[in-house]
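User: Hi! Is it possible to get a structure for several chains at once, not just one? Here's what I have:
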Amino acid sequence: MSGTRILLIGPPGAGKGTQAIELSAAFGIPAISTGDIFRHNVKNETPLGLKAKAFMDAGDNVPDSLTNDLITDRLEDPDCSNGFLLDGYPRTPDQVRHLDEFLASHNTALDVVVQLVADPDVVVERLRLRATEQGRSDDNEAVVRHRLEVYQEQTAPLIDIFSSRNLVAPIDGIGEISDVTERIMNALAGRGITAS
Ligand code: ADP
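Assistant: Yes, the chains can be modeled jointly so their relative placement is included. Here is the combined structure:
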């Protein structure tokens, strides 16, 4: 398989969704956000959405089994055969195992894990703004704090797993959107990953 396979990892509010759009356009690959897919399902009151809603509103991870099935379905779509960017997945060690198996069974692998680094105080403030702009039901302060804890407990340890595979590019996520994109593109170029 050809193409570029990128993971974006970082705490809530680090700017993953914003950078996902930029990188998706630059590399011509779909940006897949499990959070967006879940929100879409909640909005449309699908069976998946009905199962996911309570977890999301509480700021907890949706159970791995649901999330893993969802991502397998999406990655099997034809538009992913030439690469993809995952935003918000994997979030737990079980999800890493699932993704590893999926990629291995499709004779492919990740190219890079972009770690967006942002100070907790900054992300809480960003999410406060987003709450007033977008009205996301999980952006109130108590839930935001809980999502940060869930990130620290369940997702931050994944950085070590990917670091041991030499896949992690840590990027300072603070600053202008275009500056952060440039930092990412430079780090990827340094690893020989360029948009052709
Ligand atoms: P953020 O990273 O800003 O918190 P997301 O849009 O990535 O926001 O996720 C919103 C919510 O969707 C999470 O709090 C969680 O409930 C659910 N979710 C998204 N991705 C996953 C995942 N990979 N595993 C489990 N739950 C997820």
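The chain has one domain: 4-190. Strands lie at 4-9, 31-33, 83-87, 112-117, 168-172.

User: Great, thank you!
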